[in-house]
Amino acid sequence: MHQPTPPSTADDNRRPRDLPPWLPPTDDGPGLPAARAPRPASAPARPAPGPRHATGLPPTHNALICVALPGLAISLEHGQLTGQGLEGFYRAGRRLLARCQVRVAGREPLAVQARMTGADSARFVGTVRVSPAAGPDPDVVVERTRHADGTECITLRSYAVHPLRLPLEVALATDLAELRAIAAGAPGHELPAGVHGSGLRWTTPRGNSWVTSDPPPADALASAGLLRWEFELPPGGTAGVRLRVRAEGAGPSRAVGRAATSPLAPASATGDDPGVAALLRTSIDDLEALLLRDPAYPFDPCLAAGAPWRCGLAPAEALAAARMALPLGTRLAAGTLRTLARTQLRGPGPRTGMIPGPRRDAGAHLPPACTGTEATLLFPVLLAEARRWGLPEQETRELLPAAERCLTWLRTQAGDGTYLCAPEPGGPVRSETQAHAHRAALLGADLLDAYGRPGAAALRQWAQELREAFRVDFWAADRGGGRPVAALEADGRPLALEADGRPLALEPGGPPLALLGATAVHLLDTGLLGAGRWGPGLLDKVQTEQLARLLGGPAMDSGWGLRGMGAKEAGHHPFGHRSGAVRVQETALAVAGLAAAGYEKEAGGLLRGLLAAAVHFGHRLPEMFAGEQRSDGSAPLAHPAACRPAATAAASGILLLTTLVGIRPDVPAGTVVLRPLHSAPLGEIGLTDLRVAGAPFSVRVSRLGLAMVEEAADGLRLGK
User: What angle do CA 219, 221, 222 make, to 5 degrees?
Assistant: First the structure.
């Protein structure tokens, strides 16, 4: 048994669960990965009614969430903003408008349709029956188009046979509460409004907001927060009002992703499966909606983790999403790397080179994991692969010192041992952490060799020793062919469980923690080396074949994607965020890893299942959904607290489609290799306007699984 060496310190952020940082820790929360929230403002001027009890996150599965950071607009299907739950317009985490209720001729419109029209906008249609003589048919259609930038257009359209005089009333109110307080069940009281110009204004010591209208209202009643208009509509006539919500002094809300040229290429897809075009388009739109920029470094875009709960930077997820989005260009990767390089720890000590990150709940069987460890290991991986995709030489050299510090941190933490421990001294040795470390060592060594930097040989030697030990220590033999071990004790012994298989027990004895879970997909993800090669895996050929069989089996494949934990494991829960729910990123990584290893049948099954789920979610995949078994006529069940959109889920759509064509570039060598899925699980597919070497790249795969490059950069040749 190989003895790991525990590191000396842990990460700074010691939250017992990885809830959003603005929520108090609870035992019943969904455990969604944490992100940094905007700096909290001062306490509310008036206390919220009732005690402040965190009862879990409000449900979002039936909400229409318009995102164009820093703006959000959250609505339910009826379209009226009632001030209940999360409804409202937000900017930078503060609710600027909580209530926006429309009445036409004294009646609320009857909602007949609500749909997203883009990542940042939604359309609501309602009807009103104004004329008693009209019979059962409505004679006025009310259309509302809501945008995340703080605007709403209300259009009245008359279908009456005679002219109508239509009074329009809009009731407005807000509490100027922070999203963290609203999520914790303490939004505060509605504030008194004042008439201001062509609308209403709310002012408190902690912030101000106003609503203006075009045309100006005929009457404004501040005490009731009411704006009124009266329109004369001929038969077939229309009239409308445009409302604008904004914080005082902030100017119009302008989305980060729309403020400048997008770092993502406007790629498109065609093919036999009509869903591929919608999935790629929606994925790109959602990524652009989640873009962040530090005002001090406006040319360094990176991704927020997801809306509505994690509209801040989560280092590990930002790096993972940027890596999956490399086929759309390297600008997002470069911006993410530069942003995180500025957070890297410096100075003497064993933590030098680490990229700090919050802790992530790992479920009932393991203590929380440190996302800072994952981010530190992902940093050199993303830089090495971005270089293969065409990151300019100058930018690579600028980022190389930060990547070297990450690799130095890796070797320091591993010490003379074989494994990289969890961040806590004496904590468990996790299999996915070894997978991240192994990939970082291999790709980091290639990166160091490319620029004549020392240390590559030592990294490769350590990676080889890790592989040899891992294949023995992290594999549990059984009659079914064996399975990966999820974690070992810090001293190298198998991690023990109590009789029910749920709580963690650090005492020796008991079965190893060999629960079949989706974290095993990281064992297949080794990364892109030079000349279109994938690095050697942690498992040998027989073990990889067995893992592929397990991942493609009914215990793990729900028919909609990969379960987080096998259906037959102790503690399985289809809605459990680490114990059975389908996590989209892990399913996409499984598809890519299985395809790279040559297991196309298993990869194709998971791919088709996730694309079928995407149709039910309007092609805007949430970060996770329930792992219920698919059956005829069924639909995937939404997780009530999942982020949607989420950066990793949106980027997973790009990874899934590019896996079908198998693009493996090596721009420094001037080559690109294509390894499509020869089984062509979706039939013919074409991807246009991707980016390789900074130039448009288009490729098509036929129904026979044959790939053909249709457009590429000058000087780029097709490799074998």
Answer: 135
Dihedral, CA of residue 92, residue 98, residue 100 and residue 106, to nearest 10: 180
Q: CA-CA distance, 649 to 646, in Å (whole number)? A: 5
- Tokens 């005929």 locate to 218
Mean pLDDT for the stretch of residues 552-578: 93
Tell me the CA distances in angstroms from 701 to 167, 182, 341, 664, 704, one per residue in order. Answer: 58, 48, 38, 15, 8
User: Which residues are within 8 A (CB) of 496 and not within 5 positions of it... i.e. 6 or more apart?
Assistant: 489, 505, 506, 507, 508, 509, 510, 511, 512, 513
Estimate to the nearest angstrom the gap between the alpha carbon of 206 and the chain centroid.
Answer: 30
Closest by CA to 384, choosing from 340, 328, 319, 339, is 319
DSSP state of 623: S
pLDDT digits 0-9 by tens, 482-523: 999 988 876 555 554 443 433 343 334 444 567 889 999 999
Count CB neighbours of 673 within 10 A.
17
Contacts (Cβ under 8 Å, ≥6 apart) of 324:
588, 648, 651, 652, 654, 655
Closest-CA residue to 642 (of 66, 186, 59):
59
Confidence category of residue 680, pLDDT binned at 50, 70, 90: very high
Using the structure block, give the residue that is written with the tokens 């994952």.
Answer: 374
Torsion, Cα of 389, 392, 395, 399 (10° steps): 30
What pLDDT was estimated at residue 4? Answer: 42
Centroid of chain to Cα 340? 18
The CA distances from residue 309 to 36, 564, 623, in Å, are 10, 21, 12
Judging by DSSP bridges, how do beta strands 71-75 and 121-128 pair with one another?
A: unpaired
Alpha carbons 663 and 710: distance in angstroms, whole number? 13
Q: What is the pTM of this model?
A: 0.89
H or E stretch at 473: helix 456-473
Beta bridge partners of 74: 65, 88
CA dist 673 and 666 (Å) reads 8
User: What phi and psi values does residue 359 have, to the nearest 5 degrees?
Assistant: -90, 150
**Structural contact between residues 12 and 345, judged by C-beta atoms closer than 8 angstroms:** no
- Those residues with Cβ within 8 angstroms of residue 22's Cβ, 6 or more apart along the chain or in another chain: 37, 40, 178, 179, 180, 181, 183, 184
The DSSP output letter for 563 is B
Token pair 């490059």 in the structure block, residue = 709
Q: Please, are residues 146 and 67 in contact by the beta-carbon 8 Å criterion?
A: no
**Cα–Cα distance for residue pair 431/167, rounded to 1 Å:** 65
Q: Which residues of 23-42 are buried (b: 16+ CB within 10 A; e: fewer)?
A: beebeebbbbbbbbbeeeee
User: What's the token pair of residue 694?
Assistant: 């900074």
Beta bridge partners of 246: 210
Residue 27's nearest CA partner among 35, 17, 36 is 17
For 710, other C-beta atoms within 10 Å of its C-beta total: 12
| Domains with residue ranges and CATH for the chain | 1-36+314-515 (no CATH), 64-254 (2.70.98.40)
- Backbone Cα Rg of the chain: 27
pLDDT exceeds 70 at position 389: yes
> CA 685 from chain center: how many Å?
25
* DSSP strands (E only) in 367-519: 369-370, 429-430, 475-476, 483-484, 487-488, 496-497, 504-505
